Automatic annotation (TrEMBL):
GO molecular function, one term: oxidoreductase activity, acting on CH-OH group of donors
Tagged with keyword Transcription regulation: no
Keyword field: Oxidoreductase
Protein family: Belongs to the short-chain dehydrogenases/reductases (SDR) family.
Key word Protease present: no
Biased composition (Basic and acidic residues): 8-27
The protein, known as: NAD(P)-dependent dehydrogenase (Short-subunit alcohol dehydrogenase family)
Domain of life where this protein originates: Bacteria
Length: 285
């Protein structure tokens, strides 16, 4: 049974403005508060989907937010508007997270906008490209997927880290595919598995001297622009049908995991861990 109308976008990472129905990514039911009052945050892939919901949620809790995005200027502008309406300061930087020079420039610009300090870094940007026959997977695609999904995390984290004080938080977006695999997304799932290792190892590396917590979130099938821009109409229409809850999740249902992990009070005893908002799939990891 179709979960949403058949649709496809021919460009990645896709546009939320073109989706039907639009994802719930504006955190309209989140009451807000002061859990992140005075905090500053950088979110890669913050223009739409999960990144948008996280950015708006952070702003509702009192944070100023810089979002990084690729070419989705309309989506980014809408996200910034909601950040400001929520009471935060927002800034968008466009570029390719797979380029280490862009990561360095973006980090410098973000740090300047945020007043010289970054309390929360969310590594969220990603891309995926299905391939039915692994023997035919393009080498360039594999290189591109790894550059965006995992190497970009290395480069952006390295550039931002000198500006993160003790008590800061890093949150990395991995995926349920890191735990259960995906026959059509071997390169994507591999990068997401690498992110789990990156998260656990970085948590160990950054605690003793810096007291920076590093955690991850592994979403299941979420209704974001990455879905219609990755799959054909039929596959997109059935997105979310393979989980116990029998529906795709919404970005607003995933963002609270990031808000919890960013909150230095509520998640003070959490580092090196991964949360699993995935519609009921048990991954034992």
């Amino acid at each position: 049974m179709a979960k949403q109308p058949p649709q496809h976008q021919d460009h990645q990472p896709g546009s939320e403005a073109e989706m039907t129905p639009r994802p719930r990514s504006f955190m309209e039911d989140w009451p807000g508060g002061d859990a992140l009052a005075g905090k500053t945050a950088i979110i890669s892939g913050g223009d739409s989907g999960i990144g948008r919901a996280v950015a708006i949620g952070f702003a509702k809790e009192g944070a100023d937010v810089v979002i990084l995005h690729k070419e989705e200027h309309e989506d980014a502008a809408e996200t910034l508007r909601h950040i400001v309406e929520a009471g935060g300061r927002g800034h968008a930087i466009a570029g390719d997270i797979g380029d280490p020079q862009f990561c360095a420039r973006a980090a410098a610009e973000a740090v300047e906008f945020l007043g010289g300090r970054v309390d929360i870094l969310v590594n969220n940007a990603a891309e995926q490209h299905p391939c039915d026959d692994f023997a035919e997977i393009p080498i360039g695609q594999v290189d591109r997927t790894f550059r965006t999904n995992i190497l970009g995390m290395f480069w952006l984290t390295k550039a931002v880290l000198p500006h993160m004080p003790k008590g800061s938080a890093i949150i990395n977006s991995t995926s349920v595919t890191a735990y259960k695999g995906s026959p059509q997304l071997v390169d994507y799932a591999s990068t997401k598995g690498a992110i789990v290792g990156f998260t656990r190892s970085l948590a160990l590396a950054l605690w003793e001297d810096r007291q920076i917590r590093v955690n991850g979130v592994a979403p299941g099938p979420i209704w974001t622009p990455l879905i219609p821009s990755s799959f054909g109409e039929e596959r997109t229409s059935k997105h979310g049908s393979g989980v116990p809850m029998d529906r795709p999740g919404q970005p607003d249902e995933v963002a609270p995991c990031y808000l919890f992990l960013a909150d230095p009070l509520r998640s003070s005893y959490m580092t090196g861990q991964v949360l699993h908002p995935n519609g009921g799939t048990v991954v034992n990891g």
